[in-house]
Each structure stands twice: as C-alpha cells, then as structure tokens.
TrEMBL record:
Domain N-acetyltransferase: 1-147
Domain of life: Bacteria
Species of provenance: Listeria seeligeri
Any one Pfam family match given in the protein's UniProt record, by short name: Acetyltransf_1
Protein name in UniProt: GNAT family acetyltransferase
Length: 147
C-alpha cells in the first residue's frame, strides 16, 4: 500500500469502524468517530512504515480493495491478526474475497505465520459466511442482551 492508498483507505475505514461499533452497541454516536480515529492513530502511528503492520492494496487489473494485518511473534508461534479487509462494493460477489484470502494464506506461509485471526462484527453476516467458507473457525463468542 502506498501512502496515498493509506489515506484513501483511512477516509472510509475510520467511518466504517465507527458505524460498526455503533451498530454493535459498543460506542454511542457522539463518541464513535473520535474513538475510531484514536484507534487507527494508535495502531498506525507511523503510517505505512509502522512496525508489524502489513498494509496491502488488492489488485486485479485495477484496485479492488485493501487488506491490513498485524503480526506478532511469541516463543511458540508467529501469528497474524486481520484488522481490516475490504473488497470495494462494485467488486463483491465475484470471488475476489475468497481469492484474496487464499493469497493471504500463501503470503502468511512465506512469512512463517502459523495462525491467522480476525474479529468480525456479528451483524456482518456476509463476512462471516466468507470467513467460514475459507476455513476460519469461531474461537470466542461474545454475546449481549439489551434491556
């Protein structure tokens, strides 16, 4: 990902994350955008050169999305955590999500990563279906009941 791509990505990712947190009931509307900006600033404090943050533009013959993952290494394993994965709306439903995640598997193996994790909001049933299709399994489930 280039610096220009990062700015494009952030122009909608920050808003999308804020809206997802509102829809999930985690943040209220008044605080969501500020908290989202703070989260992105903390995680990507040095932009595209932030250590352990891997930012990619996804291309076919044109740019179709973005992928951002974090790597972490312990004494027993090297893992990746997908922070964001987006296929632009006009390219969805054409298999690009599946192909992009298959490419990530190849890259992760080359990087000697042996586990890939992610978080998905429960209201995003399309993403849940994609992740299940490519082999992700539930490891934790957080539930809430609003009174």
């Amino acid at each position: 990902m280039t610096s220009a791509d990062l700015q494009d990505f952030l122009s909608f990712a920050i808003k999308d994350y804020a809206n997802d947190k509102i829809e999930a009931g985690t943040w209220n509307e008044e605080e969501a955008l500020t908290k989202s900006k703070e989260s992105f600033s903390k995680l990507l404090y040095d932009g595209i050169t932030t250590p352990n943050e891997h930012l990619y533009s996804i291309f076919t013959s044109e740019k179709i999305g973005y992928l951002w993952f974090h790597t972490d290494e312990t004494a027993t394993q090297k893992s990746a955590f997908i922070y964001d994965f987006i296929i632009f709306e006009e390219f969805r439903g054409q298999g690009f999500g599946t192909k992009s995640l298959a490419a990530l598997d190849i890259l992760a193996k080359e990087m000697q990563i042996n586990k890939i994790e992610l978080h998905v909001f429960a209201h995003n049933q399309t993403a849940i279906g994609l992740y299940n299709k490519v082999g992700f399994e539930n490891t934790d489930i957080t539930m809430a009941k609003y009174l």
